Fold this sequence. Notes:
The structure is a homodimer. Chain A is built from eight helices and five strands, in the order H-H-E-H-H-H-E-H-E-H-E-H-E. Chain A starts with 13 loop residues before the first helix and ends in an 18-residue tail after the last strand. By secondary structure, chain A is α+β, with helices and mostly antiparallel strands. Chain A has a single domain, classed as NADH Oxidase, CATH 3.40.109. Chain A has a four-stranded antiparallel sheet, with helices on both faces. At the A-B interface, helix 1, helix 2, strand 1, helix 3 and helix 6 of A face helix 1, helix 2, strand 1, helix 3 and helix 6 of B.
Amino acid sequence: MSDLHYSSSPQFSETERTAVYRAINERRDMRHFAGGQVPEDVLLRLLRAAHHAPSVGMMQPWRFIRVQSRPMRERIHALIEQERQRTAEALGERKDEFMKLKVQGVLDAAEVLVITMPPGREAHVFGRRTLPEMDIASAACAVQNMWLAARAENLGLGWVSLFDPEALARLLQMPKGAHPLGVLCLGPVQAFYAEPMLQQEKWARRMPLQDMLMDEVWAQESSLDASALHTSK
Amino acid sequence: MSDLHYSSSPQFSETERTAVYRAINERRDMRHFAGGQVPEDVLLRLLRAAHHAPSVGMMQPWRFIRVQSRPMRERIHALIEQERQRTAEALGERKDEFMKLKVQGVLDAAEVLVITMPPGREAHVFGRRTLPEMDIASAACAVQNMWLAARAENLGLGWVSLFDPEALARLLQMPKGAHPLGVLCLGPVQAFYAEPMLQQEKWARRMPLQDMLMDEVWAQESSLDASALHTSK
Lengths: 233, 233
């Protein structure tokens, strides 16, 4: 371990820190897009941000398929609509409420990127022997990087997971063992939601931070006082 | 959908955007910590950043158990050491190389936070009917938010997934159905690795971005030119 090199970057300034928190606080799962375009250099910066995510054993379990053709987008949209209906049925009493939440991004967003895990996950044991789902966690970190970078580029991103992964894999001619995790809709938006859309639509509310925290063991309340934190969106 | 409120925040400036990319590029999975402390207000800011992650159907599937006591940390460390040995055996020819990579953060880091999913995931159907792993993806986004915020606070974070989740759940007295996803080591570091530690240790290398990208379908090479992107860490 003696041959590690260290960064000589300066400390993050207060201004830089504030910008990072701003991206975290103002990132939204967008469902309304304004068409337009994402310049290729911006798109590449966002993909590069995704590719700088952490991954278990550095396995980098993410690939991105950019879908531009209208016919292919319509087929993806149809898969999503099919799953929306099935999810609505499965939700039972919240069915009508759920069906009001449209998923239009696939047709309207400037860019559609399908994130998928490549085949071969079983070859990666490092950090996954007991937690095989860690490759999914890594791919999710890649999306989160892209999401925050998109917000900083003043672009909206929505992560759609309403689809049958096997059907989407077939549609995009993926090899056996590949596993799509999301249809990412990306592009200019007229504005960002002031709060998470599902909160505005009264589907759910952000829980109090205090309720997320415990000390030492599950049942012990946290001695941290989250109410001391200044409130914000 | 007519009652959505929109944010009136100004556009992100070039300076803010650069800061977000800096956090993304300079975040590291840290294994070397310098002891010390994390002030409670900073710790709460980081936890709040995690809690501002996206989650499927806004289910917020993350809880954080802060472990301060030395005996409990030693028990967690013992679980990790046990799994390190088992992973090394499973790796076969890369065993010796793997065993050189120490995992000391649990004993040395200022803070240890165990992230776990709470029981009850099966009640959440929204966005999970066909992709049940989406709650894991959401929890991973929470960690990534905290990781980037920690970097902006000039603090290191390491995500350890080398443990038997059932044994860790028992140790921390979690209820049936809870599922720990990581032992997060957090705190001051002497410096950040200049590159990912596993790359410096020659375990793996970051793959070319171009190889991550495709157009329309799996087999079609991307028409984007990632080599046009300015290189960086």
